[in-house]
Amino acid sequence: MLSEVRHTRIVRLAKVVLPLAALALLSTIFLISDRVDPTRAPLYSEVDLDRIAREQRIGAPHYSGVTQDGDALRVEATAAYPDLNGTTGTRATDMKAHLVSPSTGETTDMTARSGLIDPARTEIALMGDVTLKTSTGYDLATGEARIATDRSRISLPGAVDGRAPYGTLSSDSAEMSRPAAGAPYDLVFTGGVKLVYQPH
Questions:
Q1: Residue 169: pLDDT band with limits 50, 70, 90
Q2: pTM of the shown model
Q3: Residue 96 has pLDDT above 80, yes or no
Q4: For the domain bounded by 58-197, which CATH number is listed?
Q5: 194 exposure class (CB count in 10 Å sphere: 0-12, 13-18, 19+)
Q6: In this structure, what is the dihedral angle of CA atoms 111, 155, 114, 109, given to the nearest 10 degrees?
Q7: CB 95 within 8 A of CB 111
């Protein structure tokens, strides 16, 4: 009987003491913690929101399609945003393009720092440190490339340098296209072509 009375007193005392102790701890936390000055707080979130609203940027866009020749074209980018130069196109950054020919099994991979997708011109332009690698052994570098979206054709209008299956070469421009449906690609170099033949 005595133990039950003692237990009851302890429970009643705990009901009063514990809430008071918790309240004291919370008060101490708020008193000790540093105050935040809202005028000096960083505005990272607001800056990001303003930039996204201003640039109308889209993250990780991609384009997929099939040319009239039956080749599959896929283009990816880190980000895309409207072109501010008055064109109907969309600018993109860190672009990658992949062209596959089901009829011949040939593949072409390209990369560039930036680019422009313009539906009105039925082409995708790659610009800045453009690389082109084919499954047939070509590894080329240039400043600009234009990929047609309605046919299997890639134009390199500027200076081209790189490796071929038979050596190193350079030229003023180049173009890769298919002479006929189902035929392998022709890669034609024009203007100031220099070839250093390296037999295997």
A1: very high
A2: 0.69
A3: yes
A4: 2.60.450.10
A5: exposed
A6: -10
A7: yes
Query: Which two structure tokens, joined as six digits, stand for 196?
Result: 């250093």
When mean pLDDT is compared across 4-18, 145-159, 175-189, the lowest value belongs to: 4-18
| Rg of the chain, C-alpha, whole Å | 32
H or E element that contains 92: strand 90-100
What backbone phi and psi angles, to 5 degrees, belong to 96? Answer: -135, 135
Mean pLDDT in residue range 134-139:
95
Domain-wise residue ranges, the chain: 58-197
For residue 121, name the pLDDT band (cuts at 50, 70, 90). Answer: confident
DSSP assigned state of 70: S
Cα 200 from Cα 167, distance rounded (Å): 9
**Residue 24 binned pLDDT confidence (cut-offs 50, 70, 90):** low
Please give the structure tokens belonging to residue 107: 């593949």
Strands 173-177 and 153-156: antiparallel
The continuous run of DSSP H or E covering 184 comes out as: none
Strand partners, 99: 73, 108
